[in-house]
Specification:
Strand content: under 5%
Helix content: 55-70%
Radius of gyration: 21 Å
Number of strands: 0
Order of helices and strands: HHHH
Structural class: mainly alpha
Distance between the termini: 34 Å
């Protein structure tokens, strides 16, 4: 009779912590890039172009700022999910499906390290 595991081992949690920290570092760098582009810290503003092109570029600049704003919001949400996953690692509750209470497969956690639902629970959610 094989006993079903209720949580990942400390070594496994450490592996996931490394994966999450790598993704978190990259996500924070990406967020900083987006934030800088929103604040025009890179100096690529329409203010330094000739007036002829200014009218044409303002529409495009508005669009790209809106898009960058949405991307920045999504990136911040992703960062928050990764940080929450690190807290679950500390609490040793990481990798446990919040619907079924069973372990989420390692393959899923490697692909989506902030997952809180197993594939089965996620598919059941859509119905």
């Amino acid at each position: 009779m094989s006993e079903e595991r209720t949580r990942y081992s400390d070594a496994e949690l450490e592996e996931f912590r490394q994966i999450i920290n790598e993704k978190l570092d990259k996500a924070q760098k990406d967020y900083e890039q987006l934030r800088k582009s929103l604040n025009n810290l890179d100096g690529n503003d329409v203010a330094d172009t000739s007036p002829t092109f200014k009218v044409l570029e303002e529409g495009a600049a508005t669009l790209s700022k809106e898009e960058a704003g949405r991307l920045a919001q999504r990136q911040m949400k992703f960062i928050q999910h990764l940080q929450a996953a690190l807290i679950r690692i500390e609490n040793k509750t990481y990798g446990i499906c919040r619907e079924t209470g069973k372990l989420i497969p390692k393959e899923r956690l490697r692909a989506v390290p902030h997952a809180t639902l197993s594939i089965e629970a996620k598919q059941g959610e859509k119905k």
